[in-house]
Recover the amino acids of this structure.
């Protein structure tokens, strides 16, 4: 029996990994347990632990760690609580492997615990890079240095890890596991999902808005978010609008949502079932905001994506993505462009270079095949190639 712990603290990271977790959970030779924490257990952010339970996964521990304060210190305080509560739980379970994904502080804790307990750590989405100044970027690279093994989305990400001193034998290019949900999902025309949300009329066409605050843009973010909503309303475009995540500055974005919550142009949501969310995503005219989903996932449908502000700047993206500043004029120009028939025709022909939607199967096969204990210690010298 191979024992595995996976860490998850928010709906977004669980959504990325859920297909792989279900594959592992169905294998009688694998004992997969999740440590859930943070926003998963907060009703203010949709109490998304219910989604984990609905998938039938076993929860090793549900840890209340979230410091829900609109400050730069809140996220690292949340992380410190996770470290304090999770380390003994992991030590007692004695897993053969720890899985973490992405670039949030809770994943740094998973990698730290793995390193100090000498447990192999498998990191997904390493080697990616942005130039937006967000703390998530260096955290992602730090996790990669702590992790034992990497499953990355592209050859570029592999090269970046190698340039950071990671051995090639530790890196597996599988494509972005985030894309598998789009391949698996099929529209059910017999289910009136809009009625299930209480939408009785309107929303025959709509956009999808996912916008988060970011360290360095906390002061501008509320204005950018307001501008997005104002331009959409002025152009008479309905929109499904996600609540922000737990990043500093989110309270001001939530205040804007409260101001607009009775506006019939918008449907605001904290959490949706996977089926409903994918129905919305696939039928959207475009996605707008600053979520990585617009960069990495929208091309798999495909739909246009408008990225507003600095977040995700310089991240490799397809021809379906437009970057713009947060002022109303530039947002309006970007939306006008992605609505043009010629632009939409080009988008329909693109291929997502981040993957083909079959990454979970590849990851599962590798996890089954390898004994990762041989990867725990990193004794190689990053300068060895330079010396040659």
């Amino acid at each position: 029996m191979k024992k595995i712990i996976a860490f998850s603290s928010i709906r977004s990271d669980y959504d990325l990994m859920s297909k792989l977790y279900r594959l592992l959970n169905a294998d009688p030779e694998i004992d997969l347990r999740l440590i859930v924490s943070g926003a998963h257990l907060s009703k203010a952010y949709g109490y998304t632990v219910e989604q984990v339970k609905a998938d039938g996964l076993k929860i090793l521990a549900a840890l209340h760690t979230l410091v829900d304060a609109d400050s730069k210190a809140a996220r690292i305080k949340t992380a410190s609580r996770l470290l304090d509560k999770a380390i003994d739980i992991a030590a007692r379970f004695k897993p053969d492997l720890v899985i973490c994904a992405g670039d949030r502080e809770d994943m740094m804790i998973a990698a730290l615990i793995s390193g100090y307990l000498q447990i192999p750590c498998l990191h997904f989405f390493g080697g990616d890079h942005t130039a937006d100044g967000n703390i998530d970027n260096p955290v992602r690279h730090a996790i990669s240095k702590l992790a034992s093994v990497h499953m990355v989305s592209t050859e570029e990400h592999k090269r970046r890890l190698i340039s950071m001193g990671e051995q090639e034998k530790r890196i597996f290019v599988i494509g972005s596991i985030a894309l598998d949900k789009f391949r698996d999902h099929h529209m059910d025309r017999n289910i009136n999902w809009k009625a299930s949300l209480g939408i009785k009329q309107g929303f025959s066409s709509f956009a999808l808005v996912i916008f988060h605050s970011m360290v360095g843009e906390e002061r501008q973010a509320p204005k950018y978010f307001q501008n997005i909503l104002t331009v959409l309303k002025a152009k008479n475009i309905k929109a499904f609008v996600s609540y922000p995540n737990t990043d500093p500055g989110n309270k001001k974005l939530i205040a804007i949502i409260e101001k607009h919550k009775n506006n019939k142009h918008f449907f605001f949501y904290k959490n949706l079932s996977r089926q409903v969310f994918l129905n919305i995503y696939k039928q959207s005219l475009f996605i707008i905001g600053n979520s990585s989903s617009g960069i990495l996932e929208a091309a798999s449908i495909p739909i246009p994506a408008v990225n507003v502000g600095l977040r995700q700047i310089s991240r490799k993206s397809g021809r379906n993505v437009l970057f713009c500043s947060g002022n109303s004029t530039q947002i309006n120009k970007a939306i006008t462009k992605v609505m043009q028939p010629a632009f939409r025709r080009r988008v329909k022909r693109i291929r997502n270079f981040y993957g083909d939607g079959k990454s979970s199967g590849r990851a599962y096969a590798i996890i089954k095949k390898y004994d990762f204990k041989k990867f725990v210690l990193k004794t190689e010298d990053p300068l060895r190639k330079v010396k040659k």
Observations:
- The chain has two domains: 2-175+357-387, 187-348.
- The longest strand covers residues 30-37.
- Residues 136 and 384 are 29 Å apart (CA to CA).
